[in-house]
Amino acid sequence: MYGGRRRIINARVANITEPLPGRLNCQFRNACWLGCPFGAYFSTQSSTLPAARATGRLVLRPWSIVTEVLYDRDRQRATGVQVMDALTEQVTEYSAPVIFLCASTLNSTWLLMRSKPSGDIT
Ligand code: SF4
Predict the structure, then answer these.
(1) What is the pLDDT at residue 19?
(2) Which residue from 12, 13, 26, 45 has its CB within 8 A of the most atoms of ligand 1, so it is best to mutate?
(3) Whose CA is closest to 23, among 62, 3, 51?
(4) Most buried of 24, 40, 56, 120, CB within 10 angstroms?
(5) Cα 106 to ligand 1 centre (Å)
(6) What does the domain layout of the chain look like in residue ranges?
């Protein structure tokens, strides 16, 4: 498809070209490394959190550290997460039908490796 040449996408390219509610189109000012104050490129802060807030059902839990993805061995499904409060060290479990693990490459891998019941890792 590319004539035998390799192509890579080495940077963000999900920049909007038309304004969306709460976001402006890309201003081409090369300030992306500052976190895009215009919300023009896709990020959690400019895209998914505002969309979640618009549902009226968003709860933000700062100082929360996910320590384990809860796993139901019988159903072979993740069922929730265990969270530790960084200030109080209180541990709470949350269940959900769908879990998005977006903790970056290394921490997502770390969480998955420590969450799988011992003996199940092959
Ligand atoms: S900071 Fe945002 S608006 Fe500015 S160039 Fe980067 S993506 Fe476009």
Answers:
(1) 93
(2) 26
(3) 51
(4) 40
(5) 27
(6) 1-58, 64-115
Q: State in Å: Cα 51 to ligand 1 middle.
A: 20
HSE-CB at 30 with a 13 A cutoff on CA atoms is: 0
**Does 55 have pLDDT greater than 90?**
yes
pTM over 0.70: no
> Judging by DSSP bridges, how do beta strands 91-95 and 64-72 pair with one another?
unpaired
Alpha-carbon distance values, 120 to 69, 78, 101, 106 (Å): 14, 14, 20, 21
Which residues are within 8 A (CB) of 16 and not within 5 positions of it... i.e. 6 or more apart?
23, 25, 26, 40, 41
The yes-or-no verdict on residue 116 having pLDDT over 80 is no
Nearest atom in ligand 1 to the alpha carbon of residue 30 is 5
